[in-house]
Amino acid sequence: MGRIDTVEQPIDANAAVAAAEQALADISAVKKAVSEVIYGQENVVEQTLLAVLSGGHALLVGVPGLAKTKLVSTLGTVLGLSSNRIQFTPDLMPSDILGSEVMDQDETGRRSFRFVPGPVFTQLLMADEINRASPRTQSALLQAMQEYHVTVAGAPHDLPRPFHVLATQNPLEQEGTYPLPEAQLDRFLMQVDVPYPEMAAERQILLETTGAAESIAKPAITMERLAAIQMLIRQMPVPESVVDAILELVRSARPGHGNAKVDETVSWGPGPRAGQALMLCARARALYDGRLAPSIDDVRALAEPILQHRMALTFAARAEGIGIRDVIAGLVAPKAG
């Protein structure tokens, strides 16, 4: 089953306001449930939730021990989704993710093949340390992430809906890692950078997680409500000025499109999927903040997590110590006045 590419017909204004108010109440319940288990990291929680509310996948990048795995498992419980976790290792095979066919023999001696689904057949898949596995195994997720079905032994098998992949990778410990190819990075709606917690949050972590009792995530909404919110987000109107801002930002991030600084520093830029991601996530961010339509500020706020993994710097730019975030900040800053 393919991704829904078209936006449904807009619903009438009164119904839209009522639906948005209900969705906002549900989102508030989700945020509260997550905050009882994950301390601090509001930006990380927000961006990860936006990716799921937009119907997409997210790549969480941070050093070990920052509760990336805990965040994903918490979201699965809070959002009412079935979830599985795969620990990616160098010896992991594609069949370990997708499943395989096994031979059965009945009482008459007749043999037949039976498909045994792998852990990918879930609604929220956690791909832990995804860059530890070989490129062949990484690519096994490609079809699932884009087309929402997998093919095993020539037979297609549909995945549950909704289906989300939240993958983690560590920027350090590069021994034994295989960088994700550009095609697979592009499948992730956004890259969420997970920083060290602030002092107050880290104090709370120390106090709350080392006692006899530890907080446990509780469901806040059902899978059906999540699907309804995802559809509502796709129905939200986007002002023409926001569409223009998205196009301008994405196109200006590509070499050869009139930006001298980008021509010097960027070897390849974001494709049309980046614009699609900005359209969806800007709507989701507006609803997350209790607004009925996205603004240009939403586009600016989402530029870094949506563009940074869809661009690559030239060798000269890397040699000068220029970072991809610096380039994106330069693209957003002139429009901030």
Automatic annotation (TrEMBL):
Signal peptide: none
Domain ATPase AAA-3: residue ranges: 57-190
Residue span(s) of domain ChlI/MoxR AAA lid: 262-322
Residue stretches spanning the membrane: none
Domain of life where this protein originates: Bacteria
SUPFAM superfamilies hit by this protein: P-loop containing nucleoside triphosphate hydrolases (SSF52540)
UniProt xrefs under InterPro entries: ATPase_AAA-3, CbbQ/NirQ/NorQ/GpvN, ChlI/MoxR_AAA_lid, P-loop_NTPase
Protein's name according to its UniProt entry: MoxR family ATPase
Natural source organism: Hoeflea ulvae
